[in-house]
Amino acid sequence: MHTDVNALFANLWQDYVAVTPSAKKVHQLLGSSQQDDVINDHIALRTFNLEKVSLDKLAAHFLALGYEECGEYHFEAKKLYAKHFEHPDRNQPKVFISELLLDKCSAFLRDTITELVAQIPDEAVTADNFLYSGTHWQVSQATYEKLLEESEYAAWVAAWGYRANHFTVSVNELASFDSLEQVNTELKHAGFLLNTSGGEIKGTPDVYLEQSSTLADLHPVQFSDTVATIPSCFYEFARRYPLSNGMLYSGFVAASADKIFESTNAR
């Protein structure tokens, strides 16, 4: 397990931008003003509710660094369960981890994913680099396509394995932008495509959180039988609003997150 939270996020970022080159461009675009630091609000990780790689196994890497469990979320239609974690140092990014509930999926999907996960060595899951280790298996393009018909989420993890599904710009920390609308406009002017599922902006000040995201990059992946270009990862943007106590809301809104998941849908 990592002993340094900054080193963990630096490694996660390097792995993420390797398959999400647009994220580096967005980072440069929004950080081009001298007064703007691009601060990471949170990352998200995907997994399955199998004992070896459960949400709790991924979370252990963050709990060891002082993170604490702060909220749980249910996504009935997508068959997902999630939790988010926060560090006592509020400058550290939040972490959102979800898992696909295989018992709610078809026998084909359940059997396929169980076989893939069985190929991960037990010691790999607790290794320092597990959260950015990619795949520990080979899957054919046909298997990926069949998984995709049932669950975009399962197909994505089968293709990309363990890595940050997205990083998130904290819009509150961007001195040059007063709103998420302004950020979105800047991104569109620069040619980035946004996720419009549920509207460009998901959430409202009434739920203390507004979110938007780019569509995932299209990036080559090595299947067992071929190389194909498929959606990889995306970049999210979050604006948080203060609660009655003056503190910024630090949780997540399930209805909005549900649509953010669709940033990796095929286009």
UniProtKB/TrEMBL annotation:
Keyword Nucleus: no
Keywords: Dioxygenase, Iron, Oxidoreductase
EC number: 1.13.11.93
Protein name: 2-oxoadipate dioxygenase/decarboxylase
Superkingdom of the source species: Bacteria
UniProt cross-references to PANTHER family, sorted A to Z: 2-OXOADIPATE DIOXYGENASE_DECARBOXYLASE, CHLOROPLASTIC, DUF1338 DOMAIN-CONTAINING PROTEIN
SMART domains given in the database record: DUF1338
